Amino acid sequence: MNEGRFRHYFDGILGKAEVTVYSILAVLLAVTALVTIAGAGKILWNGITHSSISTGTLGVLNELLVVLMLVEILHTVRISIRSHLLVITEPFLVVGLIACIRRVLVVTLEAATLTKAGAWANESSMSVFRGSLMELGLLGFLILVLVYCITLLRRHPLNPKDLADA
């Protein structure tokens, strides 16, 4: 009987520690998202005031997609605090999808600057462009796989009660 009380007491302490760690993580993620939004606003403001909004577009888009990833991770942490289970796989797939789309946009814009007039002078530019095309192909495939996985999860959702019994 004494051992059962000890296990119950220790389980309560670990549960409180888990919620504390998740809460600290959530606060740090929220602060990071707010700082990133402020950074995106600063980049946008600098672009507007210097009449060069096209050069800051990549930076703003990059920052905002990072914010989307942070918010999706924050959502997952919030659900984990509420349910005390970390079996929610869809938010992680969504974060991966956002990261892939973010990288596609960055690679595409970098490749676009390579293809401007006069940038094809040396062989290294061609190899960078070929590498960019290969990366875009792999990212496109990865995006399709992630979308397929998200679709499968939405069609056949996991039941947390089944996982708790296992």
- Alpha-carbon distance between the termini? 26 Å
Q: Give the overall shape, derived from the CA principal axes.
A: elongated
Oligomer: single chain
The biggest beta sheet reads:
none
Protein structure class: mainly alpha
- Mean model confidence by pLDDT: 80
The beta-strand count equals 0
Helical content stands at over 70%
Order of helices and strands: HHHHH
Number of helices: 5
Point out poorly predicted stretches: none
Quote the beta fraction: under 5%
Backbone CA Rg? 22 Å
Task: List its traits.
166 residues; mainly alpha; 5 helices; 0% strand
Q: What do these coordinates show?
A:
- This protein has helices spanning 2-49, 53-83, 90-114, 123-155, 160-165.
- With 166 residues, it is mostly helical.
Describe the SSE topology.
Blueprint (H helix, E strand, L loop, with lengths): L1 H48 L3 H31 L6 H25 L8 H33 L4 H6 L1
Helix pairs in contact: 1-2, 2-3, 3-4
Task: Offer a concise description of the structure.
The chain has 166 residues and is an all-alpha fold.
